[in-house]
Structures are given as C-alpha cells and as structure tokens.
Write a structure and sequence with these properties.
Chain lengths: 427, 427
C-alpha cells in the first residue's frame, strides 16, 4: 500500500470541523488528542496494542493530492482545500509501543499539535489501532492457551481481504508461528505455511493418488489432510504413501481431541512416532485450552482469530483532552473522559509481576518507585519519526514479556476483571 | 485499488495444491467450486449477499506480475511459476446477484473451470463475500428496525481502514442513507454526511462559540451536537444561535430515548418544530427497534454495523463439488457438503411471499411452478463479464424487494429459524 494516499480513510465530519475551525481562527489552538479504551472487551483481562507501526506508515501517507482534493471540492470551501493541499502532520506523538499490554484508560496514542492537524487523523488512527489491537489481543490468549505449541494463522478467508493481511501480522505479533496469507509474507516478511485442502483429495481418483501426488510435489515432510473420507483409513494410506518419515497429518473436523488421541496411537503403531498431528476447524482459545492434554503438535486457527474471538474491535476512542494547556472533557451524563494530557507507568513487584497501571496527568506529583516502568515512548517529533520503530520480532518479544509479567489470574481465559487495576492520578 | 494485483491475497496452500496438481496432470480436470454458507449466523433469519461486484473486480486483477512471482520463487517450482505468470481466469461463474437474500446451502457463487483455475480463487472470493455479506446482512436488520427512518453509517473507526470502505458500501446496499467515510464516496459514489464531534465544542471557549462557528461555516441546516455539557442548555443555545430553522440536533450519549422525548418537547416549545433529532452512540438493531416510538428522525450507527452486529463473518465456504462431471464431497464425520453442481430457485405464494429455497443438483427433475424465480445469474463466461453488473442502486433495490418478499416472521429481530426452509433436490 506504500505510496497511496490515506487521506480519504477519514470521516466527513473531521473536515467540516476543520473548515469551521479554520474560519473562526480556533484551528491553530494547540491541542492534545488521546487514544484509549474506556474498558476492555467484556470479561477480558488485558489488551495488547497492535498496529502502531501501521499507523506510523499511514500518517506518513496522509496527504491530499489532486485526486483527493477533487473529491472534496463540492464539500469544503477553498481556504480549507488550500490548507489540506499543504497538509503534513508536524506535531508530536507519544504512545505505547506496539506489543505493549494495556488496560482501561491507558493513554495508547497521544497526538499533540494544532487542532487542525490532530482532528483529521482521528478515523485513520482509530481504524488501525482498533482492528489490529482486537486481533492481537485475541491471538495472545490463543498463544497463551496453546502453551508453547505452534499456531498457524489461516483466517484470511473469513475477513475483509485487506484486514486479512493485517490480521496475519497481528497474529504473528501475538506469537503465532506462521500464516497462510501470502501477502503478509510480502508485506511484513511473516513466514507462510500450507499444504493441501480437501479439494485436492477430492480432485483425485483416490486418496492414495492424492497423497502420492502431494508427497511427490512437496516431499515427505509435508502435512497430509487425512479426514476427507475415513480418518483411520486416511492415516493408513498416508503412512503407506509417505512412509514413517511423514511430517504431519492434519485433522480438520470432528471431535479433534478424541481423533488426535486415536491418530497418535495409530501413527505410533505404524512406526510413525515422529509424525506430528495438526488440528484445525473452528478452534478458539477455549478449544485450544481443552486440547492441552491431547497429543496435538500444532493448531490451525482461522475464524476466531480474525474476528477477535467475540470482540472484533478494541473500542478505542480518540478524544480531545487539552486545548492551549487547558484540560477539557465532555461532561454530560455518560461516556465521560478524564481531562488533561496523561502519561502512564506500570508498577511492579520486585519480582517483576505487574501491580497496577498508573495513569497520571502530566505534571501531577507521582512518586516513582523502583520497579515502575514508563509506558509511553516518543513516536513522532515535529512530524518526523522519533527513532527507529521496533522490528516486528521485537514487538513480538514485547508481547511475550508482557504476558510473563501479569499476575497469574491475568492469564485465565475465563471472564474477569482486568489483570491489574488502573489508578488515576490527577493534578 | 484499481490496477493493483490481488494475486497474493491468497492462502499458501492454494499454490502448493496447484503445484502438485500441475505435476501429476490433474490440474486440468474440469471442476466446479461452490460458495455457500452451511448455516446462517446463530439465530438469524436471512442473509443478504454482499460483495459480488467487488469480487468481480478482484478476479479481474488476479494476475501474477514479476513482483508477485518473485515472492513465490522460493516456494514453488518453475513450471508452477510459469503457469501463474500466464494466469487469467477463463472459466464461468454463476451466482446470486448482489443484494439477493440467501439461506443455508444457497449456491451463492459457483466457479467452473479447470481445477488449477478455480482453486487459486478460494481465499479472495471468500474474503470479500464473507465480509461484505456479514455487514450487509446486519445492516438490513437495522434498516428494517428503523422502519423508514434514515440511518447514517459512521463505523469506519471501529474496523480495519479498508474494511471500513467496504462496510460503508455494504451499509448503503442494505439501505443506509449515507456514510461518514470519504473514501466510500470516491470509490462508490456513496453520499457522505457529517458535521461536528464533541472535540469541536471542547475546542471553543464556550458551547455558544462552537455552535456559532459551526452555523457560520455550515449553515443553519447543520446538525448541532448538544450533549457535550448539559443537553437542555445545549438545545437552548443551539436554537439561540441557529434560530428555529436549525436542521437538526444530535444526541450521542445517555438514555437516548428519554432524551429524544425531552429534546422534542423543548425544541417544539422553542418553536423549532422542524428541527430534526439524530441519535447515535452504540446503537444496534435492537436499540433502533426500541426507539421506534420515540421522536427520533435519524440514527447514526457505527460499531454494530461494521462488526456485523455479533456476526462479523458470514461463514461461507468454497467447496469442490464436481470433477470431470463426477459429483464429489467430503464424507467424514462432520462438515459434510452435498456433492454436485447446484442451482437454486425461490418458490413463492401467488401473493409474492417467499415459501422455500429449492437448491437442486443441475439436471435434477425440478418441476418449476408459476411463482418460482431462478436465483443464479451468469456473472462470467470464459472469464469475461457475462453482462453489465447491476448498479449499486439496483442492488440496493434488490435488498428492499427481498425483504418485502419474506414471510413476516422473517423480519423479526429475535433469534429463530431461517425465514424459509432450504429444500434439496438431488438427482
């Protein structure tokens, strides 16, 4: 997507606000916009920030060329169009690093600049962070449930074709081993995997012929899908064709726990002791956890990953919290926000276990303790990258480190409270 | 996205299957792949096909240029790479028209061609149809619940930035009036709408100043957001600033039903009898239905639309059902499919009310009745468009017509069985 303008991935009202603010002179007021989630998805104990690197890239392409301006010419006055033609974000951004855990109220992405500069980025920032964080948060629970066994991401077909690519990236960030999505390999270097579907077996005159063709083309280390007809027969044929050096079998339907156990016995009795068992088919974190005691070597996960396992959006908002140094917040009945620019630190026990998320108004008297860690890092300064972004591998390591730091209840899959409380410190 | 190759929006295993089939000579067997949903999302009474036009466009761009082939050179043998370099889909496609209702088993998108030609399209076809159909299906329920009142789509910030554009299109297809998404206007000509967020009020020294700026920039026919501080005061200020000719007010939080009633009384008492009331804030089809008796003039819907209101994917699959004229199907325990190429007709009462979805194997003896309607239309012939696709407006009308044809239980929002049963006729 490099090179393409992202400027119209924006809500109409951001530009009408801009027009009105340019007209009355308020557009140049210095503002702070804060991105945060009021709460975690129902029952979740932590969230994981995903998409930061994608947002950085998208902001760098947020420019209005002739094609974009032509679309807006009926809607906006000439002064606003002229302003947009020159638009480059020149403000500052601080945020949680990609892969960092977050909790209710965590200031995940703070944009400072003029009102005009900041208001137009709302939709783009939220779209990316809301999507990618939802996926990586769900994925982290699956990785945690898989307890060291590798997971293959194969959900691209169940979500928008571009969301599929971002989902593959988010899954890898969460700790998935590979993806089926080829574009994710091109764009992000994520390793891909895949062998054959039921269609390949059905195409052939027999399962034997199909397995023979596959082994000839892909080698004996391939994964043979054994549940097209009868699984027991399928496994027998698989070993007959590939020999006991067969890489793996895959079971995609039925009670995969029971079937895995039977398959393991059968494979062992055939002498294929090192042939792995891959299971797939509507797995989510709960199904993965339930398979922990079964002889499963890898999981294939699709739908539940790309749909955020029940929480397809992270529900983050992008709120104006400060104008010319004055804290501001909506004050009517519901959906209240806390005014003022905030930062955050995570407090830990000496053992490294997280204790609380301290979200404080910048300038408030917060006594730092020895095991505190500041959570915001500089992302943009004067519109330019504040440094090199972490690599995807580094962000992936950050997720692992974050999960290790949670109190043990934080890793439970059951519905509960956030793993650590958010403590607000106001001025 | 015109001009960009879609070829890598594909699962790895499609190309390894291709390689193995090219090597053993089965790649050229004539195949039929069928796209269908085994079931509707839990409790839903109908689905609506979305994305057909996007799939047609995506298939036309499914070509492997040098950049795509370079990505695959480590994975595939030279013969496969050469085959891909020449790839253009040259087969036939028949499917349900976009906007058509569907039910379990409806053959929504049937691809005929060689195995090689058809197998590589699986992920792309499914990604688009699964996403867009999920959104339009949810949207149709909301439009139905709104009972003639317009709905504004404003969910782009809660989903992937490109899924946002497709969601805006799907919402319009479902009958939404407008979208906030500017790219959807550029790409699909969908009317956009939007005025101001709470940020605009907070930016100003007072609500009065903010409303004044907005009315000066956008005219008195604008929509003023009145719930930043105190709604009653906000409405008073709105009319004071804009006069009784104010277009609309918007309420985005709180118990919007109660607030709308109070707002209507207040507006009327101020003489602003024609000022409309727009409500938004976490609305879904149930909330919209609950507001039916309240003086609401329009709804703004975001999160619930773009997440498919609990069903973010349509769960469609793409299955090989015929090889060289021989019906094929997976036969093991679960996830069975029905073999053979199928077509479908919808049976109606003489009044036009739908009675059943008759899914029949092509060639089976189906006695057509006077009020039957064949559901598949030709989409591609020899890889070329079989005719001009319906316009988005025509597909939108098709959704309306479809909903009118359902038995009344079919429009209930509560969980239930599909509105009409699917009847299979095999040879």
């Amino acid at each position: 997507m490099t090179g393409t303008s992202t400027a119209l991935l924006t809500d109409h009202y951001e530009l009408t606000m801009l027009a009105a603010a340019l007209a009355d002179g308020t557009a140049e007021r210095e503002c702070v916009f804060e991105t945060f989630a009021r709460r975690l998805p129902s029952g979740r104990r932590y969230g994981v920030v995903g998409g930061t690197a994608r947002v950085m890239d998208a902001i760098s392409r947020f420019t209005f060329g002739e094609a974009e301006l032509a679309q807006l010419s009926g809607v906006l006055d000439q002064a606003t169009l002229d302003w947009l033609a020159d638009y480059r974000f020149t403000g500052d951004v601080d945020g949680y690093a990609e892969g960092e855990l977050y909790f209710p109220g965590s200031p995940l992405f703070t944009v400072r600049g003029t009102f005009a500069e900041g208001v137009v980025l709302e939709t783009l920032v939220l779209s990316i962070l809301n999507h990618d964080s939802a996926i990586v948060s769900a994925g982290a629970r699956m990785v945690s449930a898989a307890n060291g066994r590798p997971i293959i991401e194969m959900g691209g077909r169940r979500t928008h074709e571009e969301a599929a690519v971002a989902s593959a990236r988010a899954a890898y960030l969460a700790g998935f081993a590979t993806t089926s999505n080829l574009e994710a390999k091109r764009r992000y270097g994520i390793p891909t995997a895949g062998t054959c579907a039921h269609a390949f077996t059905l195409l052939h005159d027999s399962e034997h012929a199909a397995f023979t063709a596959q082994v000839e083309a892909l080698g004996t280390d391939t994964t043979l899908l054994v549940d097209t007809y009868d699984i027991t027969q399928g496994i027998e044929t698989a070993i007959e064709v590939a020999g006991t050096g067969l890489g793996a079998i895959r079971i995609d339907s039925g009670d995969v726990g029971v079937l895995a156990r039977q398959a393991r016995q059968q494979l062992d009795s055939l002498g294929a002791r090192n042939t792995r068992i891959v299971v797939s088919g509507d797995l989510d974190e709960y199904a993965i956890a339930a398979l922990r005691a079964e002889p499963v070597d890898a999981y294939g996960v699709g739908t539940s990953l790309v749909t955020g396992s029940g929480s397809p959006t992270a529900g983050m908002v992008y709120k104006l919290v400060e104008v010319d140094g004055r804290p501001v917040a909506k004050r009517s009945s519901h959906k209240e926000s806390k005014a003022g620019r905030k930062a955050a630190l995570r407090r830990h026990k000496p053992t490294g276990t997280a204790l609380e998320e301290v979200v404080y108004v910048v300038g408030a008297a917060v006594e730092e303790e020895p095991h505190d860690r500041q959570l915001q890092v500089p992302l943009l300064r004067g519109g330019q990258p504040a440094g090199e972004l972490p690599s995807l591998e580094e962000s992936r390591q950050r997720v692992r480190d974050g999960l290790v730091s949670l109190p043990w209840e934080g890793l439970k899959l059951s519905q509960g409270e956030p793993a650590i409380p958010t403590v607000y410190v106001e001025k």
